Amino acid sequence: MKTNSKSESQRINALRSLDILDTLPEQEYDQITKLVASICDTPVALISLLDEDRQWFKSKVGIDSCGTKKEFSFCNFAIQSEDEIMEISDAREDERFQKNPLVSGKEQIIFYAGAPLRDKDGNALGTLCVIDHQPRTLSEKQKEGLLFLANQVNKLFELHSINKGLKKTQKLLKEKNNQLKNFAGVVSHDMKMPLANMIVTIDILKVKYKNTLDDAGLDYLNNLKKSSFQLSDYITNILTHYESDNITNNGDSLEVFDVHTLVEDIVEMLDIGDDCDISFPEESIDIFTNRVALEQILLNLIGNSLKYNDKSKIEIDIDFKKEPDFYRFYVKDNGIGIPKDKQKEIFNLFSIVAENDRKGNKGNGIGLSTVKKMIHNLGGQITVNSVEGEGTTFEFTIERTKKIED
């Protein structure tokens, strides 16, 4: 059979780009061949794909072989037919197949009906076909069923192609994310030492030239030192964000500890003054989880409750519940609150709600994004409930690790 070499080349390229040849059997395809065999009442049904010199079966019913030579393939004629279905009632009486070894061989293809499987560009990649070992014809309802199921195979091919594209994109995004993570880590580490030197140098200048500098000069140095500390804090938060996966996936950080003790350690680290009252959970309970990660999460949330508060007396309530599958934490404050239209985006990286904190410093929008990422890695979720001007409550869960804790 002669074919247009250009169109055949395009068809072969389309088939290979689908990347489905020689893949393992899949239930979705096998269900279709079983169903079409039942509808058409034939012993054999195939999802056949035609490569350059072979016919390969993605799915098969009633046949042992995985494919045949293309030159003997009935489907090779079907994909070149302009009919929706190529039907051959008795191949022994069709001059195209009288000498075909598949007609006289042990498979003995006497009846054949195949519907071409076409991609969105019209390339016929193969067929959904049914075969019988005796002469027959399909009824109109059987033909309708064959065409309907052939369309379902086309849909499966489209999904396969989409999933292939998504996996490729996912792989590229992962590679880019790793590159960004490495870049951020290298740059941040390289910047920390020069920053530390700047801060020390500023202090030396203030001491050495205290009798020479006027008030304006001292203000310049103080502003420079303040900016250096802000940049240092920014770098630390960036590093924490990109290292959060390592923190949450570190099995060595799993330990049994008391919730009260953890919160006390965090309060001590924050050096909270007399203008703040913190309420601890009612019960002192031992839990088993990633202590380092939980400390980072609570440190950030409690720190935000302190920084973004405009009341003369800061109030922070920390509560905890042990549930069958999760640990549930609450951090509630009487701070400035979060506008309703901002609450969905506060967990986005670099999203900033308030221009300045209690001390006039500007936030960097990294902390809550890191918190959400770590909680997600620990199998939990975080939500926020806030009223502007009244306060905010963060509620989050952490999946309980399977271990006898009590």
From TrEMBL:
A GO MF label: ATP binding
Residues of the Histidine kinase domain: 186-402
SUPFAM superfamilies for this protein: ATPase domain of HSP90 chaperone/DNA topoisomerase II/histidine kinase, GAF domain-like, Homodimeric domain of signal transducing histidine kinase
Top-level division of the source organism's lineage: Bacteria
Known catalytic reactions: ATP + protein L-histidine = ADP + protein N-phospho-L-histidine
Keyword Phosphoprotein set for record: yes
PROSITE patterns in the cross-refs: HIS_KIN
Pfam families: GAF, HATPase_c
The entry's keywords: ATP-binding, Nucleotide-binding, Phosphoprotein
InterPro entries (alphabetical): GAF, GAF-like_dom_sf, HATPase_C_sf, HATPase_dom, His_kinase_dom, HisK_dim/P_dom, HisK_dim/P_sf, Sig_transdc_His_kin-like_C
EC number: 2.7.13.3
Identification of the protein by name: histidine kinase
